[in-house]
TrEMBL record, chains A, B:
Residues 2-179 form the STING ligand-binding domain. This is Stimulator of interferon genes protein. It is found in: Cytoplasm, Perinuclear region; Cytoplasmic vesicle, Autophagosome membrane; Endoplasmic reticulum membrane; Endoplasmic reticulum-Golgi intermediate compartment membrane. Belongs to the STING family. It comes from the Eukaryota. It comes from Latimeria chalumnae.
Length: 179, 179
């Protein structure tokens, strides 16, 4: 199915390549940035999975307590004919309910953006009902793959939520990330 | 199906973003590199589609007449939480049978690498027979999508071939590209 292929492609073409390299990138970031990410439990890629597929290119638009800080150093790999294809992660400051800052490596699961856009293209023959079903299947498949992956153990956190919460008022997402 | 989702994702999440920007990148490359890409018919992304899914990370290994030259300037887009996600294309020198150089923007269709790797993962439940069928479906679906895409018209060439040719001896791929 659609979700099956996207989950495997997301793992084989991205997470399996980048997650084993994450710890080194965080360590070198800490060296040049005063040991900002102190807590090793946060040394993970937080992957946002809104079941509504509502993906924002700018996280501050979702929750004003979340602010872009910096990118970690990029990884460059010669891949399928592209020389030095670039892979990078973004570091965010997340304020808690007392406005204290925490730091978090954060991004949406990009394949959900494909699912959203497919459901808007008439010729893709992919309805909104298909999309919800495939989004849940994407999550279950991805979770299974990652739970069985040696290379990725302990290096990610899947943050699944409805996606239609009014995050602006409630600061839903920052609270969810800091749980 | 798997191929349906990968073809749509490849279009919506990559080709639709990068192909409209290709001409500007070629023009600015020409300004700083003595008008190297002279022939406008070559101002296209040549997308390699070996039906065998045998994808090489280094094209010179496939055909010694094909040599990496340079990357065009990268495109950076804020996408799904990644600030300045980088998209780049590689420019290759391709020698013809008289050893004269031609220039070509070239890369494999990345989803074929996912199909290949899925067929090697036992838990993906995806056989080599599935893979060949899905690769053909990927090509047909992608061709349909691109033929109906205003944004991508005239900016790509799908280069489909078996993939098991002994390109090294016969220089199959360079000849195919220069046809
Ligand atoms: N040649 C090439 N150069 C690129 O820069 C590129 N970016 C995407 N793609 C291909 O387009 C399609 C859609 O991409 P999407 O981002 O939705 O999914 C991507 C995305 O969710 C994740 N991923 C891959 N590279 C990155 C990256 N650099 N940053 C974040 N996520 C990434 O893993 C999925 C599979 O990636 P690929 O298997 O490399 O092929 C993709 C895919 O077939 C590319 N293909």
């Amino acid at each position: 199915g659609v979700a099956h292929g996207l989950a495997w492609s997301y793992y084989l073409g991205y997470l399996k390549l980048v997650l084993p390299e994450l710890e080194d990138r965080i360590k070198s970031y800490n060296v040049s940035h005063g040991n900002l990410l102190k807590h090793k439990e946060t040394w993970r890629l937080h992957i946002l999975l809104p079941l509504s597929c509502s993906i924002f290119d700018n996280l501050a638009d979702v929750d004003s307590n979340i602010e872009f800080l910096d990118n970690l150093s990029e990884l460059q790999i010669n891949r399928a004919g592209i020389k030095g294809r670039s892979y990078k992660h973004s570091l965010y400051q997340v304020l808690d309910e007392d406005k204290r800052p925490h730091y978090c490596i954060l991004e949406y699961a990009t394949p959900l953006k494909s699912l959203l856009e497919m459901s808007k293209e008439a010729s893709a023959e992919f309805t909104k009902e298909d999309r919800l079903e495939q989004t849940k299947l994407f999550y279950r498949t991805l979770k299974d793959i990652l739970d069985n992956s040696q290379e990725c153990r302990g290096r990610f956190r899947l943050v699944i939520y409805d996606g239609r919460e009014d995050s602006g008022k409630s600061h839903f997402l920052s609270k969810e990330l800091l749980r």
